[in-house]
Every structure is written in structure tokens, then in C-alpha cells.
Design goal:
By secondary structure, the chain is an alpha/beta fold. It has helices spanning 55-68, 92-105, 119-125, 139-147, 162-174, 202-209, 218-222, 228-237, 264-280; strands spanning 31-33, 36-38, 42-48, 72-74, 109-112, 128-131, 152-155, 180-184, 214-216, 242-246, 284-285. Bound molecules: phosphoenolpyruvate (PEP) and manganese (II) ion (MN).
């Protein structure tokens, strides 16, 4: 039976082999997002605003992060906000803007889906579909994502153990979609000085237990713009296959998560610094260009 180093079964004690397990599949899975490969030797950087707010905000941010070397563009059109009175995202209009800037920049798009009824719609615009922390245990949504033929970025639930997280990924693989990327984005602890506690130990643990690529979100993981570069570098140093970070052309004016969004200049500087960390651990910041660029 598959066990983690604490000798605890990772599949709830059942003897059914886990599709996510490295014992089932020793080779690392490489997820191909329109030509950008995650899980190989190159480190992939996903950057962009928390939410798509306007044409100007998205396009200026996208052009700049591309210039700085980002490989994939992020931007939420359907936002899971803690308050129903906060900006909820532009919905399909946001997806349309993502589609336009994708054509212009050649950057593949990742955007979140929150509802089983919208998986098809989101998949028709996105190159990769994000399932957010709040939906990590939304099993109908995981099954729907497993039936769609797009790569899935599955973020760790903010209160999920490693076992629960891997079993959530198992739902997607079990439906026939093996193109899953895991993302550590911080967990809830007693600590309140950061938004979440970024669990960097999850990276070597997930990579030991599973063949799936693992990336890190230091933006939601800390909630603090000034801390994002330090944790991004740390993530690369401990073996992350990539990063997803919030970047905004005017962080102080952002409708969502401005306090944890890097400015365009801060992102450019961080990309230069990350190259040094990557080479110190024998990796490179990906220079692969998307296939349709
Ligand atoms: C996001 O990446 O836009 C997001 C809402 O993150 P999380 O699901 O990790 O909170
Ligand atoms: Mn956000």
C-alpha cells in the first residue's frame, strides 16, 4: 500500500492503487499547456492580475509580464470572493479579453472555473483551467474537470492535508484527465501576520509522493507584496516546477488583491533574480515559446 514517510496510507487505507502516486508511475508527468511544458527541467512562470478588470489593465499587464519572461498569463474572470459585495469578476466578458490578449501575445491563458455548469465555457477560452483553493474538495467540479480535455491547475485547499489534496487530484485523473498541476498556495494556521502560511515543505513531499508537477503561489501564500520575491525564490530552491504570481500595472488601484500584487517593475526584477536561483539548483527559467506564438 502506498504510504507517506510517516507511514500513513495516502489513499484512505484502500488497496486501490492511486493514479497520482509515484509508485504507480515513477516518471515525472509533464503537463503541456499549448507548448509550455511544466514538470520538466525548466521552471515555468505564470503571472498576471488576480482578476481581469478592464482591457487596459489586462493588456498592459500581459504585455509587460511577457516582456519580463512570463510563460503563461493568469487572470480570473469568475472570482471566488469572501464577500458577496466585492467585485466578482467580469464573467464571460473577462474570458473574451483573455482570448484577445492570448492571440496578441501568444501566452497561454489560465483562468478559474467555480461551477460545473461553466466548465465548458471556461474551457472554450482557456488553455488551462484553474480550480481554486475553495473548490479543492468540490467533487462534482473535480469530476467535470476530469472529463474535460484541458490541463487543470488544482490549488491546495487552505485546510487540506497532503493526503486530502492528492485524493482531490485523484478524482481528476480517475476521469481520464492526467494533465494536472498541483499548486501550494498556503494553508490556514494560527499565524495571522501573513494571509496564509506558505507550506514549502509540501513541495518536496508532493514531489516524493506523486509524479505530478508542483508549482507555488507566493502571492496568496503570503498576502504581502514585499514578501513575494523571497518566497518565490525559496520555492524554486526547494524544487518547485514553477510559480504563479499576481502582477498588476497599478497594484494600489487593483479591485482584488492589490496588496499582494507585484508591480510591473518588481516582477521584472524578480524574474532576473529567479534566473540565478534556478541555475544554482541546476534548472532554467523556461525559454520555451508557446506553439502558436
Ligand atoms: C486565485 O489564484 O485567483 C485564487 C483565488 O487563489 P486561491 O484559490 O488559492 O485562493
Ligand atoms: Mn488573488
Amino acid at each position: 500500500m502506498e504510504t507517506n514517510p510517516c507511514n500513513k496510507p495516502i489513499n484512505g487505507g484502500s488497496s486501490i492503487p492511486s493514479r497520482v502516486s509515484r509508485k504507480t508511475k515513477p516518471d515525472a508527468t509533464i503537463v503541456n499547456i499549448n507548448g509550455v511544458k511544466v514538470g520538466g527541467s525548466d521552471i515555468v512562470v505564470i503571472a498576471g492580475p488576480c482578476a481581469v478588470e478592464s482591457r487596459e489593465q489586462l493588456f498592459e499587464t500581459a504585455r509587460s509580464v511577457k516582456e519580463s519572461g512570463a510563460n503563461i498569463l493568469r487572470g480570473g474572470a469568475f472570482k471566488p470572493r469572501s464577500s458577496p459585495y466585492n467585485f466578482q469578476g467580469l464573467g464571460e466578458d473577462g474570458l473574451k479579453l483573455l482570448g484577445i490578449i492570448r492571440e496578441e501575445t501568444g501566452l497561454p491563458i489560465v483562468t478559474e472555473v467555480m461551477d460545473t455548469r461553466q466548465v465548458e465555457l471556461v474551457a472554450s477560452y482557456a488553455d488551462m483551467i484553474q480550480i481554486g483553493s475553495r473548490n479543492m474538495q468540490n467533487y462534482p467540479l473535480l469530476k467535470e474537470a476530469g472529463m474535460c480535455r484541458k490541463p487543470i491547475l488544482l490549488k491546495r485547499g487552505m485546510m487540506a492535508t497532503i493526503e486530502e489534496y492528492l485524493m482531490a487530484a485523484e478524482y481528476i485523473l480517475n476521469q481520464g484527465n492526467g494533465q494536472v498541476i498541483l499548486c501550494e498556495r498556503g494553508i490556514r494556521t494560527f499565524e495571522t501576520s501573513t494571509r496564509n502560511t506558505l507550506d514549502l515543505s509540501a513541495i518536496p513531499m508532493l514531489k516524493r509522493l506523486s509524479h505530478l508537477p508542483v508549482i507555488v503561489d507566493p502571492s496568496h501564500g503570503t498576502g504581502l507584496r514585499w514578501m513575494v520575491p523571497a518566497m518565490a525564490k525559496a520555492a524554486v530552491a526547494v524544487g518547485a516546477d514553477g510559480l504563479i504570481m499576481e502582477v498588476h500595472y497599478k497594484p494600489e488601484a487593483a479591485l482584488c488583491d492589490g496588496h499582494q500584487s507585484l508591480s510591473l517593475d518588481e516582477f521584472a526584477q524578480l524574474m532576473a533574480d529567479l534566473k540565478k536561483i534556478a541555475s544554482a539548483v541546476g534548472r532554467e527559467i523556461s525559454s520555451l515559446k508557446p506553439s502558436h506564438a
